[in-house]
Prior knowledge:
Layout: H1 16-29, E1 35-36, H2 51-61, H3 76-88, E2 99-102, H4 104-114, E3 121-126, H5 130-140, E4 146-150, E5 156-157, H6 159-167, E6 172-178, H7 190-202, E7 206-210, E8 235-240, E9 253-258, H8 263-278, H9 284-294, H10 298-321, E10 327-329, E11 337-342, H11 358-367, H12 373-385, E12 387-388, E13 390-391, E14 401-405, H13 411-430
Parallel strand pairs: 1-12, 3-4, 3-6, 6-7, 7-8
Antiparallel strand pairs: 2-9, 4-5, 8-9, 10-11, 11-14, 13-14
Amino acid sequence: xxxxxxxxxxxxxxxxxxxxxxxxxxxxxxxxxxxxxxxxxxxxxxxxxxxxxxxxxxxxxxxxxxxxxxxxxxxxxxxxxxxxxxxxxxxxxxxxxxxxxxxxxxxxxxxxxxxxxxxxxxxxxxxxxxxxxxxxxxxxxxxxxxxxxxxxxxxxxxxxxxxxxxxxxxxxxxxxxxxxxxxxxxxxxxxxxxxxxxxxxxxxxxxxxxxxxxxxxxxxxxxxxxxxxxxxxxxxxxxxxxxxxxxxxxxxxxxxxxxxxxxxxxxxxxxxxxxxxxxxxxxxxxxxxxxxxxxxxxxxxxxxxxxxxxxxxxxxxxxxxxxxxxxxxxxxxxxxxxxxxxxxxxxxxxxxxxxxxxxxxxxxxxxxxxxxxxxxxxxxxxxxxxxxxxxxxxxxxxxxxxxxxxxxxxxxxxxxxxxxxxxxxxxxxxxxx
Length: 433
């Protein structure tokens, strides 16, 4: 073509969580039965939406208004309901106009980073959630900037590393955090969040906090919303219903905006609204459902029941993997993920797992050429057992490991999956020195 048409950041748009599906699908054609542990979809893993929530949605489907457009920023009664909920927490007080709906948080993330000035960077955690890291890197055309999460400190942010990078890189305009964290399952306490906000205040940055799992916290952990600590710092909290109802197929998320009266920040938020205006609006039906479902007295019990379920599974997973040599695990306290970290130096390019299926073995042996050592293990695990997990290096991270989910509803299959992974780690690490 006479002109280059590819955006400078196009190669940064990677999503290992979905990309490994292509490898697994190829193995299926060779007769390998796949156990999907790569993506956080409760419905795929057998969770049923409570009937009372379905009944609310069924009634809404019969209401003609749910088939029409909404206002660009969202259904007004949903905005008012969510703003009231924010203000009940104390902390920063918002108006309904500080709530903006998107077609899932993926849509919100794409716009949040896509409409930043290209030279304005947002630093995020490592390990990183791929949607954030890829979108930020793509908008800038450079590798995503990260601060370290410390596995020796329960995957808490290394504040010294964060402040040092902010201090000496004046292109950084914002700080991203995910609380509770994906992929580690860490939950950030109130005091730590205040310290992160303080860094943003002192260096005149804005904050982005992904709170999609904020109501899935367990094992004695306590945290707060960004609104409760943000004070006078500009910020955005990302929320949604995909993990809570759970209704991932609704593609319904929203942002809560704090201190948008700040001049430059106000112009930036206005650009997000204008971008949404070009799409007219976000999907109507789930927005109408939000006040009815979250406002129902049964909703709190629904959240508590799910917390207890994920707590039991987190403890079960920790008990299984804590006894496996060569890895390090931290008990999750939130969300529904767990990161298994390989000890330094235990992986090499000669290790294998036996794959009895000849076609699958040949395919995997070709795929593992020139890949990170943790991805090599993940591919061999997939070929040998059919279990599909995500390598930690796929989360914008130099540490070697992988992520599992806590979502499988079938108790025997869940335990088989985790025990099989544990046995495979032992066999893999013993296969070559």
